[in-house]
Amino acid sequence: MSRAPYMVTLIPGDGIGPEVVAATVRVLTATGIPFEWETQPAGATAIGEFGTPLPPQLLESIRRNKLALKGPTETPVATGHRSVNVELRKQLDLYANLRPVESLPGVKSRYEGVDLVVVRENTEDLYSGLEHVVVPGVVESIKIITEKASTRIARFAFDYARAHSRKKITAVHKANIMKLSDGLFLDCCRKIAKEYAEVVYEEAIVDSTCMQLVLDPDRFDVLLLENLYGDIVSDLTAGLVGGLGMAPGANIGLSVALFEAVHGSAPDIAGKNLANPIALILSGALMLDHLGEQDAATRVRRAVRAVLADGRKLTRDLGGTAGTTEIAEAIAGKVQAG
Ligand code: NAD
Asked: Beta strand pairing status for 96-102 and 250-252?
């Protein structure tokens, strides 16, 4: 008897999005797990067709399927529409952003053996979009930190550490300056930490954490951060393992999960078959983890490692000349071979 397919909302997005999304669909299909993809435009691409970067049918599709795979979407700087990502995370209450950072074979970087996890709060902080002009020449951006969201993200991080045998959680903050907001975040982390005696809990100031990550990333295990610090530290940690082309991510809520890479729409290389699809392919492996399809997830990760270790098929960002589609074919071939 054939299995019922997993219904997934597929968001190609902007720039290199459609290319890396097609590559990921190719690899996930090669696992043999049945998927049915419901394609929905978002971002700048959707504005032309629907007059909005976040059409209501996209939200309906994700709410129905409870699962989405997303390419990056463009956000204009300092003007124009609000970020589709911020809106999606808020509207679907995707409160936890999970970003594992791992060294991969054959990828030139400053360190070997990096194995970190970034857990970022995804719904509040300075990303609440509360900005206004007080008087001309003076603007105010409001940072919102709540007990509810801080407790929820802390619990997510500790549950993750417990489930994945992680030893230590570092809560990253600037509570020496933002005593009330970051102070509340730390209070919530401390309360939750008491329930998980087997996980070491420590705290570190965000600026010093950035320096220590560059000096000695092995010192950390799971990093637990508010939204803005998490955004910045995610890109920093991606840099430790060879750049944005290697950094996968998951946005997880109580009922919905959305998988996307850390990188953006890379307009400079869009439409040229130059994008590295590995970050989104590894995000696809996180989706397989989420579905409990452990064997398929392991096959995808093994195939990525094998293609990278072989070194003959690499995209330009990794020093090679292979195109997005060639990498996808090479990885899909290894997934099929098991
Ligand atoms: P970016 O991540 O798009 O690009 C930064 C640099 O990294 C560029 O040189 C790009 O070519 C390179 N790069 C990124 N991904 C790559 C890949 N897979 N393979 C090879 N090279 C890659 O960041 P940006 O230029 O700051 O942002 C561009 C647009 O993307 C903006 O509109 C921004 O708002 C948006 N953005 C979207 C998301 C998202 O949808 N999740 C995340 C970040 C940025």
From this structure: antiparallel
